[in-house]
Amino acid sequence: MPSDAFVEKLTEQVGHEFSASQQYVAVAVYYDDEALPRLASFFYAQAIEERNHAMMMVRYLLDSDAPVRVPGLAAPKSGFANLVEPVRIALEQERKVSDQIAALSGLARAEGDYQSEQFLQWFLKEQVEEVSTMSDLLRVVERGSENPLMVEEYLAREGMGSEAPDPTAPPAAGGAL
């Protein structure tokens, strides 16, 4: 079983993942209201992905016979100054989550908890992809802010948000959506 310190930090991370999911829903709703369906769809899909990350962590705790607690959440930011701000917030959020996952992995290693360290390897890889995707999207949205339909075209052309599930991903509690 993972240490109490690791369980506490992973529980906090469950909250961060659910919070990211809600933030992405708020971003998707903003873009939906702006009649930008590709951006909205991309962020709705991101919201589901973040929710599934939280549920993967819950499944790990359950499988490890560790206590499971679902933390409460603060309300997400839902008002945005322009089309760029939501993506900038998303990139900052992904960078922060990358640091959190790295710290969790470091904690597992420091405690000699090799199972938990191994569990987190997928998340470390996933965060590299997430930061890269949001960095690219931010550059595109900054360039296309005067003509958001160009951003919509980019998303359609690149197929962003329509990737197949990763078969190497850890299982999620309740099954992934």
Question: In words, what does this structure look like?
Answer:
The protein has five helices and no strands. By secondary structure, the chain is mainly alpha-helical. The longest helix is centred in the first third of the chain and has 30 residues, at 4-33. The mean pLDDT is 94.
Uncertain spans: none
3D shape = elongated
Fraction of residues in helix: over 70%
Q: Count the strands?
A: 0
Question: What descriptive keywords fit this protein?
Answer:
elongated, mainly alpha, Ferritin, 177 residues
In short:
70% of the residues lie in helices and 0% in strands. The protein is an all-alpha fold and 177 residues long.
Element layout with pairings:
Layout: H1 4-33, H2 37-63, H3 85-110, H4 114-143, H5 148-158
